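Supplementary Note 2. Why include the ligand at all?

Several targets in our set were suspected to adopt different conformations when bound, so apo predictions alone were not considered sufficient. For every target with a known small-molecule partner we therefore ran a joint prediction. The input for 2-phosphoglycolic acid is given below.
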Amino acid sequence: MKKLIVGNWKMNGSLDANTALVAALLQDTQAWACDVAVCAPAPYLAQLHTSLTGSRLDLGAQDLSVHESGAYTGEVSAAMLKEFGVRYCIVGHSERRQYHQESDTTVALKAQRALAAGITPIVCVGETLAQREAGQTEEVVKRQLAAVVHANGHCISEIVLAYEPVWAIGTGKTASPEEAQHVHHVLRAQLQAASQHADRVRILYGGSMNAGNAQALLAQADIDGGLIGGAALQAAAFLSIVAAAH
Ligand code: PGA
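The joint prediction is reproduced in token form.
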């Protein structure tokens, strides 16, 4: 399966910084053996739609509304994202679950909205440190994925899944390749029980992935790519992760 490396820029960037970062990323795309995308803040999607069209770098968003349209001040719909060439949309990132109280049901509905608009949702699941220490990792990620499976039925094989242990995000701590592989294997089995096409779902690892640890993580059987935060803001670091994905 072709691997997928996705940069999550979070709330970073500016018109000038984005221009410089994209120019550096697009320098040698023929060398890429994997699919690559960047998920940008909503106001920059128009800028990136223009600069990425026709390139090998795909465009992603970081969130979308559960609603289709109407009186929802501040929200951005799936159809709007689609107009700007958005191919992927992160849903249920732990920062949204934590700071914006997104429930498993909300995340599942967002995935459904994305799929209905022809956008691939990158569904994030992951346990907190307290949950890991209490031995609840499997139970938590399975519950989070089950809600998405329940709402999306056989379309589940169209999603991208990302396992992001909350304690590893932005902390410099990563799950070991074996720890990550174990959870990916559990998630794969859950997908297989839900769909006969589960083997085509790419399961990304996220949480302090960087140039130094990417290769060992990406060598695991069920790790099909990465969701990269901090290291996605520097072209050289991001490109070495891309180079490790083949
Ligand atoms: P990080 O973030 O790479 O900075 O840990 C990953 C993410 O939150 O998607």
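The beta strands are 4-8, 35-39, 57-61, 88-91, 120-125, 160-163, 202-206, 225-228. The two ends are 9 Å apart (CA to CA). Comparable summaries for the other entries are listed in the accompanying table.
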